[in-house]
């Protein structure tokens, strides 16, 4: 492995560990780390003449799954409806990622959206900063609808160049 690969692996494995102590902040930091890794790769190659990261997109998908798995572990501390929702959304996404890896059919990313990550952020924020907010089935449905629109829009812009 190249130096660039070691740097990316190190910080993408370490940053998500903050989710255990600070769920919302750790999740935000993990998303930022995910967004910055391509910038770090580019800078290291350009200015330090470090080697490239092998199979970057595959590599990135595994590291994303790692931090989502940590979020899922933390979601097991939640009770009732939020925990059940986190479980359903996480495993639905895992099924989608496995099918995508096996078939390489990009449309599967739209059918199996990464709603879990947005849901985790929503509930981690609500439980930490708005503890009096009660998650009812109706509120959850409305929030999931909003999060689905955000997730779907994100995929269309990043993966399909539609907007």
Number of strands: 0
Radius of gyration over all CA atoms, rounded: 17 Å
Count every helix, treating DSSP H or I runs of 4 or more residues as helices.
8
Give the termini separation: 37 Å
Sheet with the most strands?
none
Overall mean confidence score, pLDDT: 87
Q: What class, by secondary structure content?
A: mainly alpha
Domain count: 2
Q: Percent range for helical residues?
A: over 70%
Strand content: under 5%
- Sequence of secondary-structure elements: HHHHHHHH
Which stretches of 5+ consecutive residues score pLDDT under 50?
A: none
Overall shape = globular
Described by its quaternary structure, the protein is single chain
Which features characterize this protein?
163 residues; mainly alpha; 2 domains; 8 helices
């Amino acid at each position: 492995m190249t130096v660039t690969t070691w740097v990316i692996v190190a910080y993408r494995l370490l940053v998500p560990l903050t989710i255990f102590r600070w769920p919302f902040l750790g999740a935000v930091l993990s998303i930022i780390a995910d967004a910055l890794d391509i910038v770090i790769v580019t800078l290291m190659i350009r200015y330090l003449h470090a080697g490239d990261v092998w199979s970057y997109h595959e590599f990135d998908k595994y590291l994303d799954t790692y931090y989502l798995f940590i979020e899922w572990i933390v979601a097991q501390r939640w009770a009732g409806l939020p925990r059940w929702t986190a479980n359903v959304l996480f495993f639905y996404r895992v099924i989608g990622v496995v099918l995508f890896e096996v078939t390489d059919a990009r449309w599967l990313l739209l059918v199996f959206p990464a709603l879990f990550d947005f849901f985790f952020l929503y509930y981690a924020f609500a439980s930490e900063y708005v503890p009096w907010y009660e998650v009812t089935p109706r509120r959850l449905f409305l929030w999931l609808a909003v999060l689905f629109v955000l997730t779907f829009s994100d995929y269309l812009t990043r993966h399909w160049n539609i907007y």
